[in-house]
Amino acid sequence: MKFPIFATTMSKIAIKITSEKLNLQECYDFVTDDSCGGITAFVGTVRNSTQNKEVTQLDFSTYKPMAIKEMEKIAQLALEKFSIEKIAIHHAEGLLQIGDIPVIITASAAHRKAAFDACQFAIDTLKETVPIWKKEHFSDGEIWVNAHP
Length: 149
Hints:
single chain, alpha+beta, Aldehyde Oxidoreductase, domain 3, 5-stranded mixed β-sheet, 3 helices, 10 strands, 42% strand
């Protein structure tokens, strides 16, 4: 069964929201550039506990049109604020199991500091502004978290 993929790719920005498994190599390949001496990656994974409770799975929901737009804004801001060449921001939606990857961000730059700073800026801003909601499932119930913006 094919799942819908919502993506935009510009020459320096790749954005994707998908129900399919995220691919670190795809993000890495996008940002690779001969002018860059540094590539950084942030890979978020589903962990097995939060606040001393056992997590069994996570369920991510998005408002895709707005989420894509906000992710594009984050990427554009990262290009403007930091001396990076390219950036990829990919996010998963749907049910994810322990160890699965809900988010990957890669950035490339001539020097490592800009790439590190851009990745940190992108993940921090994504968590604050992008309409992606997470439901944590526990053995004894479930709860919505990160219910913003």
